[in-house]
Amino acid sequence: MNEFPKILSANWGKPNSAGIETYLASGGYEAARKALGMEPAKVSQEVLDAGLRGRGGAGFPAGRKWTFMPKDNRPRYLCVNADEGEPGTFKDRDIMRFDPHMLIEGIIIACWAMQANNSYIYIRGEFEEPAKILEKAIQEANQKGFLGGKIFGKDFNLQVWVHRGAGAYICGEETSLIESLEGKRGNPRIRPPFPPQKGVFDQPTTVNNVETIASVPFIIREGIPAYRKFGTEKSPGTKLFSVSGHINKPGVYELPLGYPLMNFINEVAGGMIAGIKLKAVIPGGSSTPVLRAEECQNVNLDYESLAAAGSMLGSGAVTVIGEGTCMVKLLEILTHFYAHESCGQCTPCREGAPWAAQIAKRIHEGKAELNDIDVLSSLGANMMGRTICPLADAAACPIIDFPKKFREEFEAHIRNKGCPQAKPFPVEFK
Amino acid sequence: MTIEFKESAKKELDRMLSRYPSRQAALLPALFLAQREFGWISDEVISYLSQLMELPKARIYGVATFYTMFNKKPVGKYFIQVCRNIACAMMGGDGLLDYLSQKLGIKEGETTPDNKFTLVKVECLGACGEAPMMQINDQYYGNLTKVKVDQILAGLK
Amino acid sequence: MTEPGKVRLSIDGKEIETSAKATVLDAAKQAGIHIPTLCADDQLAPYAGCRLCIVEIEKMRGLPPSCATNVAEGMVVRTNTPELHRVRKMLMEMLLSDHPYDCLACAKNLHCELQKMAEEFGIRERKLRHLTRESVLDESNAFYSRDMTKCVLCAKCVRACKEINGVTAIDLSGRGFNSIVQPFGDGPISESVCESCGECVERCPTAALSIKKQVWPDKEVSTICPYCGTGCGILLGIKDGKIVGVRGDKNNPVSRGQLCVKGRFGAFEFIGHPARLKKPLLKKNGEFVEASWPEALDYMAEKLKPYIGADRFAALSSAKCTNEENYLMQKFARAVMKTNNIDHCARLCHASTVAGLADSFGSGAMTNSIDEFRDAELILVTGSNTTENHPIIGYRIREALRKGAKLIVFDPRETWLANQAWLWCRQKPGTDVAWINGLIRIILKEGLENKKFISERTEGFEDLKKTVDKYTPEYVSKISGVPEEQLFQAARAYATAGKSSILYSMGITQHSHGTDNVQSLANLAMVCGQIGRAATGVNPLRGQNNVQGACDLGALPDVFPGYQKVADEALRKKFEDAWGVPLSSHPGLTIVEMLNAAADGKIKALYIMGENPLLSDPDLHHVEQGLKALDFLVVQDIFLTETAQLADLVLPSACFAEKEGTFTNTERRVQLLNKALDPPGEAKPDWEIICELADRLGYPMSYPDPAEIMEEARKLTPQYHGISHSRLKGGCDLCWPCPNQDHPGARILHQDRFTRGKGKFTAIEHLGPAELPDKQYPFTLITGRILYHFHTGTMTRKSAGLNQIVPGPYAELNPVDAKKMKVKNGDQLRVASRRGEIKVAARVTEVVNIGELFIPFHFYEGAANVLTNPALDPVAKIPEFKVCAVKVEKAAGEK
Questions:
Q1: Pick from C761, C875, C763, C756: which is nearest to C361 by CA?
Q2: Complete domains list, chain A, with CATH
Q3: Of B84, B92, B99, which is closest to A333 when you measure between CB atoms?
Q4: ipTM surpassing 0.90, yes or no?
Q5: Of A395, C164, C199, C278, which has fewest CB within 10 angstroms of its CB?
């Protein structure tokens, strides 16, 4: 790991970092105790004032989201979104594996703030190991009286359950997650009503990402200034970045927001694999716009800087693409993924994604015409903003951007009647 | 009805049911349980769950086929899933699949005649930092090389 | 100013005022503005999947789907801009890219929504290369085919199956582009729980689901379904003078376009069936020979003349005929034949309702309307297999359940509703008075009764209170077999819900103590004040399309039209004045009494219109004896029924599709029939035949049309005073009582006062069935109807599809009994009672309890009524179809 401030990953290196004793030794559950001594509304306000934004990808202010919960007598739910599945993203898995109690403490605080008595951690089905670690941590927290009835002597009950998904990327979308949690096919819901009005089991519900919730204990324990000390004015605090691709040290890193992208690649993540030059970066997960190498130069890893560069911070999943990578092949893989993950409800996504995948494949195999590049772009344009949920937007992003930013490469495929490269990727399985 | 959960599985399902205010919410846990107990989600399993969960068969089938983790046909003792998404592909994922295919003597989507191995390729498993990677049953294996794969396969009896 | 609950918006520059709950799509439709869509349906929740209905709305981002966007005050909507056209066209190109190129050979060619839409967007060629979807062609259903290569995944079918029918026989499986609509596990649809209601097929925009042998009609005629008492609106499709199909009539207020399998697929084949009677048939030397109408009617008049005034003539009217025809038939019996020996099959289904509710409330009909079930907080269903026998009312119950209503079912059989119920109590057959008294006792002991209602609106409470006192939970549980705890749950829930509705049918009425059962339910409702308000009441579901009307119009032996007693001098005088002849003051004989009297030689001539007692009445051997002992039997029907075969004269009549008139459904709603076709051959409407016969017997009856008959009838029938054909044609939607021509009719009875003044409590003791199982006959036989056939099968068994689904008679037998007798599904059983024996196939199922047997009575070749007990209810004279003792054995060596 690196020399940067550690909020989320502070305990990761410690022996038995997932155990409750390790967590308690580092001041664990003090924030929850403190929060339960505060007015619930004050807790939301602190989180809002700390500037914590949703870490799942959308970047919506977390404290504000909590205030959308109605104050009626209905039971309220917090769903923690641990359905990490966007290609390139693997940060939440590490929070759950290495410090599950930080997440649980965050859940206690968030539930107190929203006066929710039930929380489900919706974890992607393939994460069997993190799920088991979480189950154990919940058990420990229950035994210590941090969960269950009369938490910290307050008249407040909280039950936390782990709910496993079963293999569907779309369930990372909050209303699909809710449907799936209810035991249904994970189709998104039409909004309105929004989850705070009618969420899981028709009750008021908030869905937050794992990392968002795990950031909360620090804010409550150390206060707003301590949190705002890191990051930028508009993007305060730290964030986990998962870096993969043609890089020497792939993995998860905690950095203050606003850190320069190129420094991250070249220094923190150990630089490019020997002999491979940087070609492009997908900076925030597969559904954020790709940046060509030259576009990466003065970009910082925060919401604003990446937006200014025409992309997004997203989930903080930095996919580093080296020279020698065929962008057409990459697009084929990505569109195949989105076609595979589309629930099938909306026409543009259900039909558009397989279409794009087929065209990308045809281009790569040299069976396409020049006109197909335009068909691809127009397909993308007709998927963007045309569906119930953002999956089609995510799918449309590379469909639009790849041919735009690497037009020459696409045309070369058509001229060459196939991929001009001998192999689509510079690294081989050895 | 020829299949039925063992008492222990029934108790586990009851525990699951107690977690949710609606019976249907326990359907994914019930399907996981059924897959563990019966190996795969056959039509017979769906009929059984339909009674148990008080849900129409068509709905259970719809749910079971929506999620990729429920096997609608039998799989081998070791279910090998190789990631095909971008991070793994860029790091030689195709080569990994080819290597496994060659070692096991089966094509993607097939099961060895002794029902020991099933080989499939899957979408991103959320471990891109360890590319190329694969999952065998519930276990992840990352940063794979030919040597590592040989060792792993040798360890599977 | 905008009215409350309304908003104003502008669509394409047109100012529209509409309900605040409307969607933009609704509002556009209302304003006559076309927005293309494939997945929107008025009766289903928005899906927003096809995306064709996108619009532009000022101050809203993107292109919102109009089907899922609510209107708002001041909204400015555009539905047809170049941008929208471009996007929609692209969507259409996507949809067409995976659609087969076989329009010319497709069942839906020229009737396909996708094809029409392609035309609308001027698509002439495909831009996208063809993608193919995996094909699953399923021809297993009797009525429709399923071809998923043509599916556009609008999900209307699966939503209809879930949201309308509540069955979920099909759902989407797989996901994304590979989604398909399936029952489960690639199996054929015929092996699923599909009830073949066709709501899915009706909605499918393409030929993914299509009717087999589809013939597209040239025109459609709206009329009323001829089966159960629900009164659904159907559109008869006509081509080349033949009925080629049926669709639901969306404008019908009862069914709103929804239909069950019988209505949609089984209501037309019989109409044009070659076996229809086309000429009068006279029996000469034991053989039928064709006769002309004058010959037949002269002969009939001559044969009947001797019996005028002698009470040796009897007539059976018909719950399948119109109100006007029933009026004429009873008038014929009373004014021409001078006898009150007139009855019809209401005797066999709801005579105890008519007698019981009339005594308790003053009116023997449903106290509330069908739609109100949707708003009930609790529905207590007893003795009604509603989802099979009144399927569209079943849909309304399913709607209530989805809205969170509690359902309590008391039924010996595990019906679909029992299976879905919050509480299912399995009482022993024939113990209804006991459990109802038990419920009342618990309610009183716990102080849950409605004291104000009891004191202000009812009389006789003290006697009831005294009588129910001995019905302790323990005592009731012993009699009925219902656990004490369940009795408490049911009593508390029924009494404390804001709106509790009781719904019952023949499981309550067809007992030798049917009237007691009915009045006990009336007691229960009144004790809790669960009557006289919306979504409450005591609601008998009538079995035949016009059994309510046949009763209302006086086809009963003791009352004139409007339930006016023949024994009441003043009332009789009214009819004598109107009809110009003296009338008999003695109440006549009921059906079973008529047949007994025939066997005893006391009735010599019988005129049967549209009934088939040789299959529908209890103890068929005895019925046959009676019919054979007659001097003269006339049967007027559309087919040569089992009964008609014994007749001396058979008169061919027109069926519902071939005549005009009105039917009154179970909720007292009077609905107009429209003639779609001419009757086959020389067949005539029943009313014309009666008129011509009356003329010959010296009592001229002359009416130009049924409307005129109703003019006469309504003036004599207080409940129908304000109901005329002209009002109905004008679109009035009328439930009786409707006392004058300006009255809107009444959905809810007994609101401020009961029809009889105060509601009357009746103290009733449990007596039990007339015949109980014993050593010799150890099983209890329950008879009834099923979803796929109707009554004596005269009409439904002419449908190839219905016959494919249920080809013949069977008996439901509990697996425990089956195991004991070593009987497997499909084995032949010999079932015998003290009255006869039949052979039927075994259907091993837990739907019936151990020691009980259920046999549907539709099948002549295994006629359940050979076995049933003609023991009669002392008041209503309804026979005990629901309980008799039988023995069962495996028919040796037969399969």
A1: C756
A2: 20-228 (3.40.50.11540), 238-322 (3.10.20.600), 327-416 (1.20.1440.230)
A3: B84
A4: yes
A5: C278
